[in-house]
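WARN retry 2 of 3 for item q-0093 after timeout on previous attempt; input resubmitted unchanged.
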Amino acid sequence: PKWQSNVVGSTGAVWIDADGDGKKTSAYQYATKLLEKYPKDVKALLKSLNDYDQAVVLQVASLLRARGISPFDTQLTAPLQDAAKHVQKGFAVYAGAWRASQIARQTN
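OK item q-0093 returned
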């Protein structure tokens, strides 16, 4: 038999304390805190997302949907037009994935 060497590498998860609070805070936790801070003010919520990455935006979109605001609700889509590009993209990515899952559920 001919021996063939394969190299496999791995590393542990890397944590970056971007907000400097000394805690391991997940995107979901940031999203939850933002929704607690802006429970009814969608415009302020979207504006606050300027300071967060797309992972937090996706979590906010998911939590809003769980609260009954779909990604296609005008309550959300109208203020999104004035949001930062990365916020708009995050909601668009979530909306596409959510729509695809709805279609898949209907065909099964």
